[in-house]
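Worked example
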Amino acid sequence: MTVPLAAVVLTKNSEGHIADCLASLAWTDAQVVFDDLSTDRTVELALQHGARVVQHPLEDFAAQRDAALAAVDADWILFVDSDERVTPLLAQEVRQVIQYSGPDARAGWWIPRHNYMIGHRMRGGGWYPDHQLRLLRRGKARYDPAHKVHEVVVLDGQAGYLSQPFIHYNYDSVREFQQKIGRYTGLEAQILWDKGTRLRPWTPISMPLREFWRRFVTLKGYQDHLYGLLFCGLMAWYTHVTYRRLKKLRRGAA
């Protein structure tokens, strides 16, 4: 049976977050955990909270979300990451907008996020409002396969903007950030490779410096003081590792 609204949570060893995440989604008509073959208690906990679990090995994040869109029978899909929470105010706003079916009805909705880094809510550096296109009318949305990470939605129609934010518990520690680097930078490097990005000898240094300036100065990461300095610096390091991996790809192809 098609339901009006299903929440879809992509997971991979998310036992520390999945219970609280699903509890914040109890108001939706269905909750689906789309799991990348977790080896911890993610699936067990999801089933305990009444979610449907679909295990699907991850190829890349765009393909994973497209697979979820195809597998879930609902008029609207709300994508939520396991480390995100939906507040009652956001839930109310989502319910309101999906009920509208007039001539200017939207095919999707952008949702802002409050990002918490080591317990601190970030105000600058691109971490707010950090809009995410996550509320999608099924049949009107797909994911661009060229963007394997930091996915891009292709909509058949217009998108609107909600005012109430997700709560995103982004990183609990610097170590957690470092662990995620290994997962994302490989995909980022492959995207640059597929695009034929030119790599100069100085690129692994110049691009991280540009990224730090963009986040700390242009996007006002300095508003978060030491947290801004730390995480803008870590994003610069992320950029450095990405271009270093691209360099290895080019060497391997030579």
Q: What stands out?
A: The chain has two domains: 3-170, 173-253. DSSP finds seven helices and 13 strands in the chain. The mean pLDDT is 94.
